Amino acid sequence: MSLRDQLLKAGLVSADAVQKAEKDRKQQKHQQQKQQSPSQRDAQKLEAERQRQAEAEAKRQRDRELNAKREAEKQRQANLARVRQLVEAHRLNDARAEDRYNFPDGRFVRSVRVTAAQRRQIALGQIGIVRMDAKNFDFALVPRAEALKVQEIVPERLALLYEESDGLEEDDWGDW
Questions:
Q1: ∠ CA 116-121-125 to the nearest 5 degrees?
Q2: Which domain holds residue 61?
Q3: Do 68 and 124 sit in the same domain of this protein?
Q4: Is the pLDDT of residue 145 over 70?
Q5: Residue 172 CB: number of other CB atoms within 10 A?
Q6: Cβ–Cβ under 8 Å, residues 114 and 97
Q7: Does residue 107 belong to any structural domain of this protein?
Q8: pTM of this prediction?
Q9: What distance in Å separates the CA atoms of residue 91 and residue 86, rounded to the nearest whole number?
């Protein structure tokens, strides 16, 4: 509610006084515009147009940045879905495995259950460990080729992958 409406409602001014004040204000504005030279009016119009264009360009820039962020988030989600699908299709985790394999994960030491054969393959670089869902501490064992694909798509999901050992053979392990 405007000040005029509040004053009218309170009864401090009459409707005639409000109309007269409004008429005087319009006449005064008209006189000021008449007194301005055409070049001043043109300059004001140009300035107003420049300001509108600058505001429109700033809005377009904000929209572009927002769209870029949205697209980046969509791409990230698509990459995570690809990795999830790839890992689930090639997961080597054995439900009957009883041995724990400890490995560094950032500043923590994590573990995953492995069989003796899987332990050897991890050390030889034939199997990699991929982080699936951080909330559940789910780590998947995957073949080297899939671990390398995961590293290409979403590098932070690859928890461990040793270099493939050419010099070591299965027989070098002895009886572990």
A1: 150
A2: 19-90
A3: no
A4: yes
A5: 10
A6: yes
A7: yes
A8: 0.60
A9: 8
